[in-house]
Amino acid sequence: MITLRRFLEDIESIPVNTSWYLSDLSEAKGRQELFTRQSPQRLKTLQEHALIESAISSNRIEGVTVDQARIGAILFGKSLLQDRNEEEVRGYRLALNRIHELRADLRICEETVLELHRLSHGEIWDAGQYKQKDADIIEKYPNGRSRVRFKTVPAAKTPASMHELFVHWDQCLQEYRIHPLIILAAFVFDFLCIHPFRDGNGRVSRLLFLLGCYHLGFEVGRYISLERLIEENKERYYETLKESSQGWHQGTHNPWPHINYLLFILKNAYREFEERLEKTKSLRGSKTDLVKRAIESFSGEFSLAELERACPGVSRDMIRRILKQEQKAGQIECLGRGPGAAWRKRGTIPKKG
Predict the structure, then answer these.
(1) Integer Cα distance of 332 and 238 in angstroms
(2) Beta bridge partner(s), residue 137
(3) Which of 49, 66, 227, 254: disulfide with 54, CB 3.0–4.6 Å?
(4) What class, spelled out in words, does domain 298-345 have in CATH?
(5) For residue 134, what pLDDT is reported?
(6) What is the mean pLDDT of residues 207-228?
(7) 2-278 CATH
(8) Contacts with 108 (C-beta within 8 Å, 6 or more apart), sequence order
(9) Which SS3 state, helix, strand or coil, does residue 79 take?
(10) Helix 180-194 × helix 234-245 angle, to 10°
């Protein structure tokens, strides 16, 4: 809550690179509706992949791994789970389902945070409960030594700190003195500094970031796993957390490294999303051109089977759709019925019997 409190007390100047991220994300959001009207089947596939990647990556960041061969059973099956790791991965999937189904209708409040922790933490004894003992961030070295890297909010002060965090979140959004994406990134950062749970804080923070993006209309997390992108940039994730958290308790910290990191992740998600759909569109277009060129190459009548042989890699359903489109456009005509019917280009001189 320290960062959001600072934003409420004094409007800080925004770093130039932060402004660049916001500009790029604003443009990406503007193109979002256009892209989400394309390729329904491709979008469905992206959603399924994102769900799997998010559940696996967010847990793997915290050292929770499962057998790759059992991922399908863990995430989508009803079989009994084999160990604690599998419970946490399935629990994260349930939390993701909750967010994707309700999206902006799921309020960002204490009740939601406790529910997301309960789901993602596999319903163990303290799932959905704030920490009962102090839990600092410990840094371990290869030689076995360790030190306290960051002292989190004490357990006794955690409920009050979380209440203040939600109050400041609502106030910042209402006053709208700073871009809401910055407010969201600062909210997630403050949440991590409070460290309200004994375990699972990182996973809940990523769920909150996804949910907050939905609230602000940035829905790319539905199709591209934000958690996977964070895992791929895990070293920078921890570096920016360490850099931004120094002096947090005193309010002298620099929150921008971690804020910019989260904006960077969101920007990369949109870039990947658009690249994947553009690639799909390009492949679809090239196949259409291939079929049209094959039709043009026939000097007389041709069959569906002959057209298929001329267009390897193009499905029969797609060839049929193109034939109907060309027939409707008056470019070709069908000379019979059924899959064995002959086709020819309009204006072609029919064969003499």
Answers:
(1) 61
(2) 150
(3) 227
(4) mainly alpha
(5) 85
(6) 95
(7) 1.10.3290.10
(8) 166, 169, 187, 208, 211, 212, 215
(9) coil
(10) 80
Residue-wise pLDDT for 85-138, tens only, equals: 888 888 899 999 999 999 889 999 999 999 999 999 887 888 889 999 988 777
Which of 38-42, 260-264, 295-299 is predicted with the least confidence, judged by mean pLDDT? 38-42
Q: Which residues contact 306 (CB under 8 A, 6 or more apart)?
A: 298
What is the separation of C-alpha 91 from the centre of its chain, rounded to a whole number of angstroms?
17
- The domains of the chain are located at 2-278, 298-345
**Average pLDDT, whole number, for the chain?**
87
Distance CA(133)–CA(29), nearest Å, equals: 42
- The residue with tokens 């064969």 is 351
Read off the pLDDT of residues 46-90 as tens digits, 9 standing for 90 and up. Answer: 888 898 899 999 989 988 888 877 888 888 877 778 788 888 888
DSSP classification of residue 144: S
The torsion angle over the Cα atoms of residues 235, 187, 203 and 220, rounded to 10 degrees, is -80
How far CA 78 is from CA of 66, 71, 74, 242, 315, in Å, comes to 16, 12, 8, 40, 34
In angstroms, the CA 75 to CA 328 distance is 45
Nearest one of 222, 235, 230 to 206, comparing CA atoms:
230
Structure tokens at 260: 């910019």
Same CATH fold, 298-345 and 2-278?
Answer: no
**Res 314: pLDDT:** 75
Q: What percent of the chain has pLDDT over 90?
A: 50
Which ranges constitute the DSSP H helices of the chain?
A: 2-9, 16-36, 40-61, 71-76, 84-102, 110-120, 158-175, 180-194, 201-215, 226-232, 234-245, 256-297, 304-310, 316-328
How far apart CA 170 and CA 4 sit, in angstroms, is 10
**pLDDT exceeds cutoff 70 at 350:** no
Nearest to 307 by CA among 347, 260, 269, 342: 342
Q: What is the distance between the alpha carbons of residues 272 and 278, in angstroms, rounded to a whole number?
A: 10
User: Sorting pLDDT into bands at 50, 70 and 90, what band is 349?
Assistant: low
Classify 156 as helix, strand or coil: helix
